[in-house]
């Protein structure tokens, strides 16, 4: 039992979170994650998951997991570095390299662990990290764990990045430029062509976290492929937790870099990975995404996303700078964003309200993640509900 004052202190902090509206009321899922789901006992059309390609409940992923568990058992036993890893993990890492079009690949327990583990291995005291203003929290934490200096450049602002590169030139041992491929709150795309060109000019390392780009852009191969600059990115980071419908993180790069990361990343060395079942499911997910069927899923995803975004705009909603299936409806008011999400939920549509501090004040929104598995009927039903509630709440 905790001491009285400890309980009181954190009880008070918790209350403050509640009062500031920063407490997560976490909903219960009562079945598989798909374009439809049972949430709190209610059937809803799902826009709250990253299940872009509708693979999270795919029979082939489940089957692969079951077979691997039958063959290798459930538990990994110990951290891979000590006890060795199952041959299926080597297969997965080969597949990661094939997917990222790199020489070698490494698998991590999660995307978060990938960033907090990999970034500190690449930079040290005397180095500089140039980081996009809207980079994911796991990148920010990875930077904090490194001993390098950090300078934030304005979101997707190539001129600002160049200015900061010019000023830093010659003052540091090396410079790492780090960016999301697709940004997770706005669904806009990092200008990787310009960034990789600048990196070449200034001889900087480029690290792309493509969590929301892989399985979505570049026929599924991600943001670097979308711009045709795969071979100009030094470090290709990704996750299995979005379009790939599973969980785990990955890095693709040259063999020496991958083996160095493996031998120095603390989140790889000190943390046990997931069950062999998850490894096998990830392998299957990559196979599907790289196949003709994967390309077809990506095509359907964009067809759905483009339709949904265009219709939201024609109803009068502000979808910001989204160019991807991650579509915000920007409202600019915490209370209205929450009310809208709640009204939609009551109508059987699950979208997430995103408010300060996750996004800047004045840009409070609902976040809508379209899936290849949504039908036209799902989208139309959702659009009708958006129009009804948007008018009732005075948003449009
Ligand atoms: C989701 C996400 C992560 C974390 O990935 P997990 O596999 O969920 O740990 C990292 N970076 C970005 C940009 C993300 O969107």
UniProtKB/TrEMBL annotation:
**Entry keyword set:** Acyltransferase, Pyridoxal phosphate, Transferase
Show where the Aminotransferase class I/classII large domain sits: 43-384
Required cofactors, per record? pyridoxal 5'-phosphate
Signal peptide positions (record)? none
Matches recorded under InterPro entries: Aminotrans_II_pyridoxalP_BS (IPR001917), Aminotransferase_I/II_large (IPR004839), AON_synthase_class-II (IPR050087), PyrdxlP-dep_Trfase (IPR015424), PyrdxlP-dep_Trfase_major (IPR015421), PyrdxlP-dep_Trfase_small (IPR015422)
* GO MF assignments: acyltransferase activity; pyridoxal phosphate binding
**Alphabetical list of PROSITE patterns matching this protein:** AA_TRANSFER_CLASS_2
For this protein, the record's Pfam families field holds: Aminotran_1_2
What protein family is recorded?
Answer: Belongs to the class-II pyridoxal-phosphate-dependent aminotransferase family.
Protein name, per record: Pyridoxal phosphate-dependent acyltransferase, putative
Organism, scientific name: Fervidicoccus fontis (strain DSM 19380 / JCM 18336 / VKM B-2539 / Kam940)
């Amino acid at each position: 039992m905790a001491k009285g004052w400890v309980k009181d202190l954190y009880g008070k902090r918790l209350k403050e979170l509640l009062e500031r509206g920063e407490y997560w009321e976490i909903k219960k899922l009562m079945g598989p994650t798909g374009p439809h789901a049972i949430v709190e006992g209610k059937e809803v059309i799902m826009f709250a998951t990253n299940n872009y390609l509708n693979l999270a409940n795919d029979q082939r992923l489940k089957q692969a997991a079951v077979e691997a568990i039958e063959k290798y058992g459930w538990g990994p036993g110990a951290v891979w570095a000590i006890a060795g890893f199952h041959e299926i993990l080597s297969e997965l890492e080969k597949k990661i390299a094939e997917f990222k079009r790199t020489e070698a690949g490494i698998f991590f327990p999660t995307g978060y662990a990938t960033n907090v583990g990999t970034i500190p291995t690449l930079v040290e005291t005397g180095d500089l990290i140039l980081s996009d203003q809207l980079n994911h929290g796991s990148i920010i934490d990875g930077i904090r764990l490194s001993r390098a200096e950090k300078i934030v450049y304005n979101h997707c602002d190539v001129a600002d990045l160049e200015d900061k590169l010019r000023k830093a030139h010659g003052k540091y041992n090396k410079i790492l430029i780090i960016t999301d491929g697709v940004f997770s709150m706005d669904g806009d795309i990092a200008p990787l062509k310009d960034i990789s060109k600048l990196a070449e000019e200034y001889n900087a390392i480029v690290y792309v976290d493509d969590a929301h780009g892989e399985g979505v852009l570049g026929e599924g191969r991600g943001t670097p492929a979308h711009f045709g600059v795969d071979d100009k990115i030094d470090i290709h980071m990704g996750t299995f937790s979005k379009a790939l419908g599973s969980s785990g993180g990955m890095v693709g790069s040259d063999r020496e870099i991958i083996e160095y990361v493996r031998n120095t990343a603390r989140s790889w060395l000190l943390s046990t990975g997931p069950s062999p079942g998850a490894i096998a499911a990830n392998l299957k997910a990559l196979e599907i995404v790289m196949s003709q069927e994967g390309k077809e899923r990506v095509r359907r995803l964009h067809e759905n996303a483009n339709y949904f975004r265009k219709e939201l705009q024609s109803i009068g909603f502000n979808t910001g700078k989204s160019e991807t299936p991650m579509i915000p409806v920007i409202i600019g008011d915490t209370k209205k964003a929450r009310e809208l999400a709640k009204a939609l939920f009551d109508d059987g549509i699950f979208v997430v309200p995103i408010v300060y501090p996750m996004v800047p004040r004045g840009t409070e929104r609902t976040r809508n993640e379209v899936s290849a598995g949504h039908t036209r009927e799902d989208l139309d039903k959702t659009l009708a509900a958006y129009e009804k509630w948007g008018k009732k709440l005075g948003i449009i």
